[in-house]
Every structure is written in structure tokens, then in C-alpha cells.
């Protein structure tokens, strides 16, 4: 949009007065930020209205991305860039003696997600808008996002994330679009003419109120919607009966029991606890979302049979899989379609992404619980299951009762959400090539046999405009000066940088930028943790959720090994290294919390040991989230992607690090394999077991962790150090970790991969010392990272799964 500095100042002063009723000099940073946000929201308003009007006028097919999580982070900086008014805003504010950077800092992260799955949803929203796809998000407006992590005495301690305390300037509450959600009660059947009908009665009703946030496209006038639902009590719940009996407090208890539905995001990211409240959350937002889609569709005055020509519903993992029976329920019970027509519409609409093969993350609900909470929806699932089993027997001629039992949506009193999602959708995709292969040939093999064409791969992608342009302005400027700004809209052209592989002057500039970013991070670490780190050392980072399969403990055991070597020989010729960790553990995941404690304990010992001459440092940065990632990633030299092969579905951190010039140290897992393909094997460091080895070990039961431990003295030494008072903690502190590695035979092959990892780390050291060589590797990673932009991923979803077209909008603000 066009905005002069003069007009900016006029609008901004008006916003200050309107939102604060104070003179500028009397306002706080928060008030200044809110005023700016409000002003930007006003600018966005007409673009948003125009976008929706044009979607409706043309009746275009629209995508609804259903996700329990949207980890969007901050909006201000991005919105300014996308509107093309970042520079004028900065100058205008400067003239008023305000630093834009300070206001950007004030914004709280919208942390409504756990990790990869939630951040992917946020990157996808951006990409849908930026490549002009009519696509919206549908989710939950949790009052508390993912907990804030503090490290106290080396332990993770959780605090509530009250992201709404200062008011969220980007959202619009739309009470007029509230819908009713019905829980519990029972179902009555009756005949209407010769149709069997169902009526849900005696239910508890809850009001779902939408809050809409605009999702801007990059300089293309498109504004899609992220609609998050919040639970409120329905008026009649505020029971007059209670009042009349003078039972005022009970009325509030009931109100509280409703509002609790959207109070908190579950903080587990790979462990399903099967809690009733979580099931309530799932149905709550799915039902609300589908009701509102149907209302929008009806404005087109088309027959219901055309629903799937205008609507695509995507379910992000199985968490919104109730979309299948809920859409069926509405089409059959309320729209009075016959079952087969409703089923055709439903399966044509719905598509599903699988994000994990970890058995403990697969959602399963006890049938009795579901029946109690959702009596009619459960009947629908039972009918879907009955028909599915019929198909297996009659169409696919299955006679093996055992197999039929395993594939059923409901068996042994359990509802399997993945099976429901697979049966009820026309597309099932994995998130990286290897992951999709594993789904097809192993984990979901039986379903792939009967539905071979439903399965497809869509390798994840990241929002390059955030992870490069916003996070790393120095690098962005250098790239722009070198190859122009085409990469902002078409990131594959980053490949043009490959021409500069032998250009010393360019590589020097690249080195200088990395160094400045490292200086910035070193300062941040000093301020936050009072640890001095050497910006000339290798910044080696592992930043992601803490989980045994991601193997942060292998990393820290290797750090202990380096320390042991330095203690034996303080003059050891080793490039100085700083190991930086960040990530949250699920609050109830004891071993993961012990891994955090171990990292901090080792860090304490090493960082305070003067004899090793600052050659080694260990830092654990607390409260990893979108903002911290933005500070860390531009300063990384080495990106640790060391999961047990086959376990990490894709990873997206791996893509963010490479885009910022880090060299990946990786197993052949998830998207690491595709990164290797892009950059070539000389520009990535690979080690460890392959997925096939892992499956073979599991199958044959021939892995013996004790043997590996006994055969490798260096490894034995570090494991023993966990429990022999070498570390300043009670002797039994780390027994649970050692037990997992030895007594329970090391499920994730930490010991098995240790030697190979050590060698790979040695190679990293050698490459790093050869500066021109290292900078060439770094450059190659940046140049090849464009292939992982979410813009391309979303383009493939749009053409291959959703069958929606791009919709260019040419009105101007
Ligand atoms: C599962 C569960 C289980 C029930 C309780 C709450 C909860 C919350 C989240 C999840 C999802 C775990 C799956 C996940 O996050 N997968 C990650 O998805 C990324 C995006 O596709 C991918 O890059 C990571 O490799 C994958 O681990």
C-alpha cells in the first residue's frame, strides 16, 4: 500500500489518541504497540472485506485447514512487511522518537501450539494467503498457550502462558457468528414418512464464539481468515432455576465448567493421555467450524450436493478427525441427504495429514467415553465402521477376521481416530518422502493395500519470508544486493547464489554476517544467563521439543566425551565449540525432563572449568518458541537433526537452519534425506543407522545395548559418569536415563549410533577449520533452501489434494 511518512504520523497520532486518550509522551510501549496494531488492523480491514466479497461473488472453492494448533508467533513485523509499509513506519515512528524494534518486542508470541505440527499450520496459513489460495484456518482460541518454561536449578518449571493479558489487538470477536455445540444427552429415533430420523435430546449446550485474525498475503492484497473458537456459557445455562433457589455460586460453577473447554492447550506433543476434556475440545472446534462453513456455503444458494465443489476441509493430524462423523451427521440429520450421498460429499471434502508414526501419539478414545459425550456422533461412527467392515468383506473379499479386526475403526471398545480419518477422507499424506514410504509400506500398509491412490507425499515447507527475511535481515540484504529480490516471491531463485561459490569476496561477506549474528546471540546469552560464549567458536544447536527419539541425550553425552578428552589433554587441538540447546519437555514426561536437567548440569560443570581454556561451552536457552527460534537460528553454524532413523516424520527446524546457512549434522531421517538430495552429500554431514536397520533390529530383537556399552570405553566412561558422582547431583538423579539406555535396551539406539556420531562431529570440526570450504558449504545450504518454501508445498496441496485455484486479487488500498 502507499503511505507517506506524513500520513503515517497523522494516522498514528490519531490511533494513539483514539486507543489511549493520552498524549504520546504519557503512553507506555505497550500502549504505543497497541495503537500501531490497531492502526494496521484498520488498514487491513478493507482488503479483508474485499477478499471475502470477491470469494463469495465468484463462488470459488475455499479451503478450511482444521488444526488443534496454530503457532503463529508475532504479527506486527510481518504485517508491516506484507503491506509494504515497514520502512515508512520505522521512519515515521523515529520522527516521533519511537523505535519500531521496541514495539515489535512488546508483542507477546501467540503460542497456541506445541511444536512442528502447530508451526507448520502457521506457515501454511501464510503460504495460502501469499500464493493467493482462498484458504482459512480453523482452531481453538486457548486462553493459555503452551506453558512458559523457566529453568530453576537446572530443572524445567512450567508457568502459565497468559498471552491474552494485554489484550490481543489482531483479533475481531464476532459474537453474531456464534454457534451452539451439544454435548451429552441421548438420541431419540422416530419415523418421518418412511425415513428413520434421529434427535439429540437432553444435551448440554455450549456457545462457540469465533475470534477472527486476518492472515495477510505477501504484497498481493489477499487477506484470509484464521478463525479461533472460544467457549462461553449459553444464556440458559446461567440457570434461572439456580437463581430462584438462591444458588448463585452454582451458576458460576457451571459457567466455569463451560469456559474450561478452551482454557488450555494440552502440552503433550507425542503422547495421548485420552482425557475427556481433550475430546471435548476436539468436538467443540470441529463442530463449530463445520457449522460456520455450512452457513457460508448456504449464502451461495446452491444445492447441498455441490458442497464438496466449493469446500475442502483439511485435517491436521487426527485431532480434528471428528469432522468426518460431524459432517455426516449434519448432512444426514439436518440436511436430510441419504447416507450414500452424504458419504460421497464428506469423503470428497475431507483430506488428512499424518504427522507421526509414534504409537503413543496415535489417538484412541474409549467407546463408552465417546458415546457418553457425543451420543449421536458416535452412532454415526459406528455406522461408518459397520459399512467399512462390510466393504472389506464384500468388495475386498477379506476373510481374515484378525485383519478385519485390526483395521476396524472401532474394536475392543476403542475408537481409533487414524482409521476414522483414513476411511473418511479422499487423501492421506505423509510429510516427507521417507515418512510417506513408511506409512505406505509399514505403519498403514493394510490401508494402503485397499486405498493405494489415496496415499501421497507432501514434504513439509517453511515460511521463508519469516525464517529468512524477518529473522535474518543482514543475510536478506546481502542476498538482495547480490541476486535481486525475486527470491521473496519465488524462493527457488536462491539457487542463483550458487554462482558465488568460488567468490571469495562474497564468501567473506557471508562469514561476516554469520559472525555478527553470533555476536548478537552471544550478547543475548550473556544478558539472559550470564554465560560468556566465544563468537569465534562453532555454534552447534539443537532446538526442538525434548524427546528421547530426538536424542538430545546423545548430543550431551558427546559433549561429555569432548570434555573428557580436554581434561585428559587440555592442549588438545580442537576448534572451540559452543553447544546450544533449547526446547520444552511435556510436563509429565519424566525422562525428557531429566535430559534437560542433565544438559544444565553438564553445562554448569563445563562452563565453570577454567582448565579447558574456554574451548567448550554448553548453553540451554529457556522457553523455546517462535521468537527465540528467530534469534537463535540465524546464528547457527551446525544444525543437529539426529533423531533415530524412521522416527522424525519430517522436521522443519532442519529447513530453517539450512536457510540461514547452518550445515546439517543428520541421520537419514525425515526431510534430512531430501535436504541431502538438494545440497549434495558434500554439503551435509550424515551418520548413523538407516530406517531399515532400525526396523530390522526391532523385528529380530538382536540389539544389545550392554554389548555396545562394554565394547566402547569412551562411551562407557560417559554413561558411568551419569551415576558415579562425577556430576554435582545426588547419585541416583540420572538413573532413569541410564535405565532407559541399558536396562530397557536403548529403544532409540543412542549407544549404537554414538561412535558414528562422534566421527561425524570430528568431520564437522575439520570442515569448520577450513574456512573457505565451510563457507562454501554454508552458501550451498542457503542457495538450495528455497525448495523448502511452504509456498511450493501449499501449491502442491492445492493442485494435488484440494483442487483449488489461485485467486489473484487486484484491488489496491
Ligand atoms: C499429538 C498429540 C497426542 C495427543 C495429545 C496432544 C498431542 C499434540 C500433538 C500431537 C502431534 C504430534 C505430531 C507432531 O507434532 N509431529 C511433527 O509434525 C511436524 C510437522 O509435520 C514434523 O515436522 C515433525 O517431524 C513431527 O514430529
Automatic annotation (TrEMBL):
This enzyme's EC code(s): 2.4.1.1
Broad class of enzyme this protein falls into: transferase
Keywords: Carbohydrate metabolism, Glycosyltransferase, Pyridoxal phosphate, Transferase
UniProt KW Transferase keyword: yes
CDD domains in the cross-refs: GT35_Glycogen_Phosphorylase
Function text: Allosteric enzyme that catalyzes the rate-limiting step in glycogen catabolism, the phosphorolytic cleavage of glycogen to produce glucose-1-phosphate, and plays a central role in maintaining cellular and organismal glucose homeostasis.
Name of protein: Alpha-1,4 glucan phosphorylase
Organism: Fusibacter ferrireducens
Amino acid at each position: 500500500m502507499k503511505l507517506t511518512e506524513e500520513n503515517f504520523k497523522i494516522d498514528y497520532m490519531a490511533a494513539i489518541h483514539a486507543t489511549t486518550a493520552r498524549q504520546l509522551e504519557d503512553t507506555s510501549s505497550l500502549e504505543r504497540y497497541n495503537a500501531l496494531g490497531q492502526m494496521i488492523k484498520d488498514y487491513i480491514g478493507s482488503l479483508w472485506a474485499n477478499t471475502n466479497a470477491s470469494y463469495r461473488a465468484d463462488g470459488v472453492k475455499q479451503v478450511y485447514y482444521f488444526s488443534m494448533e496454530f503457532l503463529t508467533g508475532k504479527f506486527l513485523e510481518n504485517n508491516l512487511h506484507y503491506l509494504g509499509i515497514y520502512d515508512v513506519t520505522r521512519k515515521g515512528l523515529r520522527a516521533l522518537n519511537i523505535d519500531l524494534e521496541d514495539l515489535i518486542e512488546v508483542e507477546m508470541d501467540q503460542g497456541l501450539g506445541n511444536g512442528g505440527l502447530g508451526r507448520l499450520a502457521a506457515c501454511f496459513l501464510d503460504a495460502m494467503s501469499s500464493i493467493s489460495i482462498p484458504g482459512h484456518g480453523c482452531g481453538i482460541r486457548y486462553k493459555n498457550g503452551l506453558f512458559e518454561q523457566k529453568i530453576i536449578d537446572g530443572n524445567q518449571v512450567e508457568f502459565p502462558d497468559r498471552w491474552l493479558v494485554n489484550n490481543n489487538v489482531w483479533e475481531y470477536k464476532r459474537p453474531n457468528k456464534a454457534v451452539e455445540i451439544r454435548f451429552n444427552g441421548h438420541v431419540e429415533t422416530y419415523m418421518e414418512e418412511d425415513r428413520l430420523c434421529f434427535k439429540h435430546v437432553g444435551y448440554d449446550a455450549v456457545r462457540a464464539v469465533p475470534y477472527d485474525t486476518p492472515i495477510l498475503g505477501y504484497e498481493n492484497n489477499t487477506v484470509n481468515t484464521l478463525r479461533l473458537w472460544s467457549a462461553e456459557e449459553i444464556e440458559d445455562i446461567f440457570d434461572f432455576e439456580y437463581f430462584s433457589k438462591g444458588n448463585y455460586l452454582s451458576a458460576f460453577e457451571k459457567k466455569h465448567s463451560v469456559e474450561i473447554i478452551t482454557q488450555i492447550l494440552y502440552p503433550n506433543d507425542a503422547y495421548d493421555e485420552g482425557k475427556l476434556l481433550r475430546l471435548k475440545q476436539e468436538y467443540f472446534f470441529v463442530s463449530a467450524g463445520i457449522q460456520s462453513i455450512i452457513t457460508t456455503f448456504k449464502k451461495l444458494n446452491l444445492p447441498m450436493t455441490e458442497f464438496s465443489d466449493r469446500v475442502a476441509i483439511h485435517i491436521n493430524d487426527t485431532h480434528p478427525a471428528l469432522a468426518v462423523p460431524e459432517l455426516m451427521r449434519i448432512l444426514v440429520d439436518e440436511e436430510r441427504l441419504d447416507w450414500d450421498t452424504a458419504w460421497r460429499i464428506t469423503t470428497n471434502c475431507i483430506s488428512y495429514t499424518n504427522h507421526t508414526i509414534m504409537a503413543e501419539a496415535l489417538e484412541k478414545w474409549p467407546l463408552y467415553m465417546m458415546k457418553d459425550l457425543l451420543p449421536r456422533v458416535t452412532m454415526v461412527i459406528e455406522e461408518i465402521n459397520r459399512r467399512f467392515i462390510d466393504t472389506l468383506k464384500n468388495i475386498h473379499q477379506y476373510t481374515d477376521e484378525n485383519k478385519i479386526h485390526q483395521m476396524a475403526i472401532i474394536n475392543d471398545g476403542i475408537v481409533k481416530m487414524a482409521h476414522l480419518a483414513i476411511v473418511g477422507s479422499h487423501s492421506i499424506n505423509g510429510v516427507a518422502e521417507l515418512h510417506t514410504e513408511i506409512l505406505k509400506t509399514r505403519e498403514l500398509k493394510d490401508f494402503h493395500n485397499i486405498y493405494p491412490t489415496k496415499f501421497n507425499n507432501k514434504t513439509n515447507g517453511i515460511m521463508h519470508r519469516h525464517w529468512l527475511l524477518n529473522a535474518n535481515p543482514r543475510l536478506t540484504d546481502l542476498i538482495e544486493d547480490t541476486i535481486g529480490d525475486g527470491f521473496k516471491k519465488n524462493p527457488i531463485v536462491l539457487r542463483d547464489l550458487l554462482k558465488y561459490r568460488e567468490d571469495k569476496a562474497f564468501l567473506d561477506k557471508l562469514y561476516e554476517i554469520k559472525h555478527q549474528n553470533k555476536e548478537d546471540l552471544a550478547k543475548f546469552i550473556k544478558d539472559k544467563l550470564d554465560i560468556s560464549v566465544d563468537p569465534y567458536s562453532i555454534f552447534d544447536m539443537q532446538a526442538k521439543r525434548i524427546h528421547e527419539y530426538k536424542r538430545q541425550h546423545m548430543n550431551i553425552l558427546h559433549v561429555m566425551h569432548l570434555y573428557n578428552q580436554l581434561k585428559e589433554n587440555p592442549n588438545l587441538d580442537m576448534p572451540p565449540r559452543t553447544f546450544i540447546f533449547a526446547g520444552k519437555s511435556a510436563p509429565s514426561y519424566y525422562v525428557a525432563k531429566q535430559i534437560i536437567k542433565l544438559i544444565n548440569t553438564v553445562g554448569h560443570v563445563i562452563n565453570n572449568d577454567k582448565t579447558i581454556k574456554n574451548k567448550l561451552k554448553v548453553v540451554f536457552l529457556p522457553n523455546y518458541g517462535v521468537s527465540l527460534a528467530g534469534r537463535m537460528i540465524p546464528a547457527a553454524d551446525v544444525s543437529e537433526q539426529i533423531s533415530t532413523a524412521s522416527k522424525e516424520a519430517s522436521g522443519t527446524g532442519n529447513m530453517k537452519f539450512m536457510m540461514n546457512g547452518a550445515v546439517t549434522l543428520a541421520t537419514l531421517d525425515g526431510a534430512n534425506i531430501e535436504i541431502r538430495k538438494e545440497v549434495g552429500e558434500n554439503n551435509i554431514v550424515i551418520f548413523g543407522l538407516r530406517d531399515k536397520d532400525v526396523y530390522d533390529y526391532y523385528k529380530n530383537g538382536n540389539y544389545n545395548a550392554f554389548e555396545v556399552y562394554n565394547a566402547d570405553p569412551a562411551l562407557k566412561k560417559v554413561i558411568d559418569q551419569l551415576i558415579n558422582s562425577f556430576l554435582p547431583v545426588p547419585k541416583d538423579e540420572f538413573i532413569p536415563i541410564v535405565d532407559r539406555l541399558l536396562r530397557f535396551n536403548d529403544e532409540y539406539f543412542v549407544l549404537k549410533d554414538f561412535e558414528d556420531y562422534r566421527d561425524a562431529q570430528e568431520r564437522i570440526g575439520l570442515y569448520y577449520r577450513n574456512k573457505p570450504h565451510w563457507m562454501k558449504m554454508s552458501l550451498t545450504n542457503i542457495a538450495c533452501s528455497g525448495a523448502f518454501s511452504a509456498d511450493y508445498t501449499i501449491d502442491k496441496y492445492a493442485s494435488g489434494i484440494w483442487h483449488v485455484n489461485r485467486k489473484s486479487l487486484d484491488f489496491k488500498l
